Structures are given as C-alpha cells and as structure tokens.
Amino acid sequence: MNSCADWNDGAPRIPLPRALPAWTYSHPEMTRLEYERILKPSWQIVCHVNSIAKPGDYVAVELGSDSVVVVRTAQGAIRAFHNVCRHRGARILDGAGNCPGAITCPYHGWSYKLSGELIGMPARESFPGLDRSQFALKPVTSQIMFGFVFVTLSGTPPSLEQIWGNCAAEFAPHRFEEMMPLGPLYTEEWDCDWKIAMDNYLESYHVPIGHPGLFRMFTPDYEDQLNLPTGVARGISWFRERLSSRWSERMYQQWVGRVSQNLPESHRRRWSFYSMLPNLGIDVFPDQMDFFQVLPRGPGKCVIRGGSFALPDDRREMKIVRYLATRINRQVQREDAFLCRRVQEGLASGSYEPGPLSRLENCMLEFHNLLREKIPEARSPHAPARFM
Ligand code: FES
Ligand SMILES: [Fe+2]
Fold first, then answer.
1. Do residues 20 and 359 lie in contact, with contact meaning Cβ atoms separated by under 8 Å?
2. Ligand 1, residues 108, 130, 135: which to mutate, most atoms within 8 A of Cβ?
3. Does any ligand 1 atom lie closer than 6 A to the CB of residue 107?
4. From CA 380, how far away is CA 153, in angstroms rounded?
5. Given this model, what pLDDT does residue 80 score?
6. Closest ligand 1 atom to the C-alpha of 86?
7. Element (H, E) at 112
C-alpha cells in the first residue's frame, strides 16, 4: 500500500493549521505591536501577597518599556504604581526590597508615601506654588487573585475571576493564598523570542522526546486537558505506577504522596500545568507551586520571570521532596531553553515554512490565532513593506 494512503488514514484531506510565519519571531515591529496590543492589556503577575508582607516591602517588574512597582502600605494595603518619578521621570525602585517609611527617588530625592502621595522634595522653596497633591505616583490597575498581585497597563480586560472561571476552584485545596515564597523571584534570559518560549509551554507534544525525565515519571498531559474560551488552559500529568530508574525521580514519586496528606488523594498523584494567554504559566505540584511569565526583551530574546511558593512546612521529608521537585524542574527548564533556542535558530533559515500543527498543539494554535486577530499582519508570509 502506498505510504500516502496510510498516512491519510482514510480521513478527508482538510488543510491542517500552521504556526505563525518565521518573520514574526524576529521582527522589531512585531515585538512593539505585541507589547502594545497583547501584553499591555493583559493581566501580569507582579508577586505573591506574602512576598510583600511588611509595610514598605515592594516588588518591581519591567514590562516592555514600562516598569510597575507593587508596594505594601503602612496600613497593610497593596498598591501598584508606575515606577516613574513625577519630577524628571527617573526609575525609582529595582527588583525587590523594603522602603522604610517612604519611597524616595534616587535622583533628586523626591519622596512619596507608601500609598503614593508626594510628601516632599529637597529645596522645596525652589518650586514656588507647587501643589504636591498633583504629583502622586501614577496608579496602575491591579487585582489580587489566588494570592497573587496582578496588574494591567491598558484597556479593561475581563476580571481574573471571569478569565479563570472554574479553574480557580481547582487551586483551592492547595491554598495558594497562604503560601510563602520558597526564594526570591528569578529572571532568566533566553535566546529566543517570547512567542517561542510560550509556544513551547502551550504544547506537551514535545514531552516524550524533549523531557525524558518527566516522561519517565508522568503520563503526558494529553488526556486531562481543559481549555476555556477565555485563554486559560490546563493539562494534568499523572504519576506512572512504574517507578523511574533515576534515584531523584524515583524518590520523588515515592515520597511526595506521603508528605502531602493534607491534599485530596487525586491531587497527591499529579502535576498540573495551567496557562493563561498571552504569557503566564502556573505549575501545581503536591508539594509546591510556581508561576512564570514570558516577557519579550526585543525580537528574538526574552526573559523568563517567576518564583516558587509553598505552605510553611518544616518537616525534613517535605524539604527533601521540595529539593527533588526543584531539581527535576531545573532540568526541564534547561531542556526547554535548549529546545527553544534551536527553534529560534531554525526559524532564521530562509528555507523554513511553517509546518502543520498536531491536535496536541491546539493551545498553541489558539495563541497564534490571538496574535493573528490582534496583529492581522501576522497572517502574511512575509513582513509587510511598511514594517521595514
Ligand atoms: S527625577 Fe526623581 S527626584 Fe528628580
Ligand atoms: Fe517543555
């Protein structure tokens, strides 16, 4: 029998969907439009509420050309501001830390209350008639959802309750709100466009080949998939009955159920992977959870920013299990960085035309369709002349 007929398996030949054209993964105008039209109007995690537990604690995040800082006020509230001084625009805070009492600009020393109001400036008499109330730090729209502070920089996206729908209830047994950071938030530069890193997270078709360790421990999450029309998706990987041949994986498989007795039985035997378009991933394990967001840093480069969180638990066995999970995940992340870099390299070849997508890549297709909807030029096989 001819191989073509085998391949077609008797099904009618309908054209399979394709990925975005290669030029969209390395063009500065695409990156600019993606930021303006897709990332700015979406919800971005800044930190966990317990990452800023004390008055004055803050976390700043760089989002495209913007920087946002989230601060715990003296009254214990959480506020989000543009991290831009109202005097001459200097960036005020970096990374994470504590501002004792007030937020002070490092340039000329304007200082702001933790709630944003301008308190004072050196040589105040040199600003005759200045109305301080007009120069508070500019607020950013924020929302707290399952223990995380999210911000959005433009438009009015649907609320996070609407976006996450029933999926949020799946987090309840893990009590994200009560979790503490297992370490500081990390950022890691990857040599690929942000869309390649996101494409990679959105499909698990690559797991059996690309992540042999994960595949030894888990079933791929092809079966237990949930896909909401709001851009949230979830896949579940179940522990295999058969133990892995590698000691760290085997030990994790054996121990994790025992140390997470607080969870319903079904939650003790799985790793669940959630995504929210355009750029957020949330991984839920019996012993901890993590989030990461993929942020563009110009065409062909991105930053992965994230952190891990867990319920306070001093038991030695839990510490070992968390150590093992972190070790396994670091390996997965190294594998993903390696694979994504190779895609970026391949896309640079003029010979590449987007290949067909599997049904197992349907979340990625949804991501590409969002990009096509918001940036219609992305449908074109070549960069439009006006993009040059
Ligand atoms: S720019 Fe901040 S005090 Fe001048
Ligand atoms: Fe992966």
1. no
2. 108
3. yes
4. 28
5. 98
6. 2
7. strand 111-113
Question: How far is residue 49's CA from residue 143's CA, in Å, rounded to a whole number?
Answer: 11
**CA–CA gap between residue 363 and residue 62 (Å, rounded):** 26
Q: Please tell me the distance from the alpha carbon of residue 354 to that of residue 337, in angstroms, as a whole number.
A: 21
Torsion of CA 182, 239, 249, 334, to 10 degrees: -60
Which pTM was predicted? 0.94
Residue closest via CA to ligand 1's atom 1 equals 88
| Nearest-CA residue for atom 3 of ligand 1 | 108
Mean pLDDT in order along the chain per 10 residues (388 residues): 49 86 96 97 98 98 96 98 98 97 97 98 97 97 98 96 95 97 97 98 95 91 83 94 91 94 93 96 98 94 97 97 96 97 96 94 96 97 90
133 forms beta bridges with none
| CA–CA separation, 385 and 388 (whole Å) | 6
Q: Is the CB of 90 inside a 6 Å radius of any atom of ligand 1? A: yes
pLDDT at 92: 98
Q: Dig out the tokens for 115 from the structure.
A: 């709630």
* 385 CA from centroid of ligand 1 (Å): 41
